[in-house]
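Q: How would the structure tokens look for this protein?
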Amino acid sequence: MPPFCHDADLPVLLDESLLDYETVWAAAGAPTAVFPIGSGELRTTAEATPVEV
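A: Here is the predicted structure in token form.
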């Protein structure tokens, strides 16, 4: 499930190990909707809380 554009506020958790990478690849709910994004930008944009997984 993508962490953006929901009708309601949802808690978003981010595997903290992703922050070790400059760029990560995210999927927007479909295998054809994949995009690169900076891990810090993903955290900020998704208002995600990093957690140990």
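The chain has one domain: 13-51.

The longest strand covers residues 23-27.

Upvote if useful.
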